[in-house]
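Xyloglucan endotransglucosylase/hydrolase
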Amino acid sequence: MYGNGSTNRGREERYRLWFDPSKEFHRYSILWNPTKIIFWVDDVPIREIIRKEEMKGDYPQKPMSLYATIWDASSWATSGGKFGVDYAFSPFVSEFKDVALDGCNVSDSFPNNNNNTVGYNYINCSASDQDLLASDYSTISPKQAAAMRRFRERYMYYSYCYDIVRYAVPPPECVIVTAEKDRFKDTGRLKFGGSHRARKRRKRNRSTPVVSADQ
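Tokens:
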């Protein structure tokens, strides 16, 4: 996650998933409103960012768009570039279905000026914002918060908030959780067993994910 189109302050986290995403479709959701951002996987919240005034113009200051792409980030994303893409397995295909967007449309008449990070006007967005803020998925219940905590304890293997080599002072939106922090090195990576590769499973397979998102 980057603010205002700049990679100078990358807000990166890395996770393993409790399933193989290439085997079947799963639901990935992002709530983005004026106060917070929440990431969901199959109705399990995995990350929440609360907007702070100290973040200043990083968001929400511009109209947003949605696109998806596949690109080779193995020079840095896979444990610092240790594991490159094996193009013997190409072509790589990504399939999507049932895409749903819910938000406020920005008038096409406003200028598309990338240098202007403030001052955009929105038409009739107040009602849409209120609907989003009042929706069930705009808040995390105590049970969902527990599911998110379990997910992060078991499947997150890098967090920029704990990478004091990169950020001697954590960015203002970081919420330092002692139980999480103790598991990471100063580089933000796990002290033990941290990698982008899934752990080898024992012969006894589990048929259900460890985390639960029952309402």
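The domain at 13-189 is CATH 2.60.120.200 (Jelly Rolls).
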